[in-house]
Structures
1.
Amino acid sequence: MQFRHLMKLNLAGLMLSVVFSVSVQAAVDASAKKADVKAVVADKVVEKNSAEKIVNTVCAACHTPDGNSVITLNPKLAGQHPEYLEKQLTEFKSGKRANAVMSGMASTLSDDDIKSLAAYFSSKKLTLGQAKTNGAGSLGEKIYRGGIAATNVPACAACHGATGAGLPKQFPRMGGQHADYVQAQLKNFRTGERTNAPMMMAIATKMTDAEMAAVADYIQGLR
Ligand code: HEC
Ligand code: HEC
């Protein structure tokens, strides 16, 4: 009798502990799920902040925090298509686009950093510029809109757009870019110092210094 009583108690205890452990497990599962969700949300926040953090600690010195660089050999990044920015950073990192300064900067960036930095600068508002002498009716405008027939240079507008807005995923935004930077890139395409754009290399090899200077000045004021 006493023995049976003990068995019953034990059985009840066993059942209780089964119920208890099941519910503990459920609670553990639920809190793990919550933790997962929290981790994902935290990652997103960290990602957003990390682009801003990298910009403020590294990029801003040369490109300013909003990507409208004031030093004219440093390109404006504001409003540029994210795919283009991503391509350039990836190619600085791999060495496909050679530049001592930017290759060093890009070498420490992860693919995620590159994506979020491209999105960050792309979302900023571009500050427009002014042409020095190549306004309406100038040589710069003629080259940009009509190309140079004698040497088979195509119109820049054909790819970079009438207002210089470019085409997402294909052609970079050009309007408002610093003339000094544009001219330097055209020269780099011509000498082969920049080799990551065969289309532009073919075009630049057919241009003189004076033509490059004129179209770069026009581009600075383009909108
Ligand atoms: C010490 C100055 C300096 C710093 C810091 C710097 N850059 Fe640059 N960046 C340059 C220069 C100069 C160029 C032009 C390179 C060339 O002539 O090919 C450039 C070019 C670029 C380009 C190519 C733009 C185009 O229109 O093709 C991108 C994108 C870029 N930088 C992003 C960044 C990011 C992101 C950071 C921060 C991680 C950064 N840069 C930090 C000086 C700098
Ligand atoms: C057939 C299309 C095409 C035409 C025409 C064209 N471009 Fe380009 N251009 C491109 C592409 C594509 C790139 C992007 C290169 C890359 O991905 O690195 C580019 C890039 C550039 C860059 C570098 C931009 C930067 O931020 O570093 C400059 C400068 C440029 N083009 C100037 C011109 C000028 C000036 C003309 C007219 C004389 C012209 N392009 C005509 C396709 C074209």
2.
Amino acid sequence: MFLRKILMASLLLCGATITVAQESRFGTPATQADIDKRFWSTFPDGENLPDGQGTAMLGKPLFEEQCTICHGTPEARGENDVLFGGHGTIGTDKALATVGSYWPYATTVFNYIRKAMPYTAPMSMTNSEYYSITAYLLYENGIIGEGDVINKETLPDVKMPNAGNFIMAYPEVPEEYSIQK
Ligand code: HEC
């Protein structure tokens, strides 16, 4: 009887392990839904921005929880890329490229963060949380107000300070070779 109980328990544990393995689906072909989730990009004009919204006020605690460990704060640099400040340094010998000083579009900042950050768990937050964190970075870089609502309508209208300083590397590229959306 005791032995049977142990056997049952082992079978149950074994079943649990198999279920976990099946859920993570390592080694199985990606479904169309998996592919759609990953192959999704927001373009500079805001095309493909998702629903949801956020503000810098909501973004601050999220940033402190999810990002500060690597990127520091506006006051203190972290181990990884600096995201604040550096305004007016691009083109000088003290160039500091940050989200505020360098990036040309607020829409692609959102896209990058949503797809790639937090570094160890990309796409793990909700779209509204990603909007809030983007808003917080824009606010701390002096680009928007603390309570400005950022969503798919307002984000494309945000003007980044360095937007006008990019030049086309290949102005003569024939139409057929230009990047397709
Ligand atoms: C575990 C460390 C880690 C965490 C946590 C993390 N990042 Fe990053 N982040 C990085 C690294 C490393 C890079 C550089 C990646 C590369 O160049 O490929 C980076 C790059 C970036 C960049 C691009 C900077 C630039 O100017 O090119 C942004 C924006 C960014 N992270 C935002 C965030 C936000 C927002 C969060 C929180 C949601 C976050 N990161 C959390 C490590 C981290």
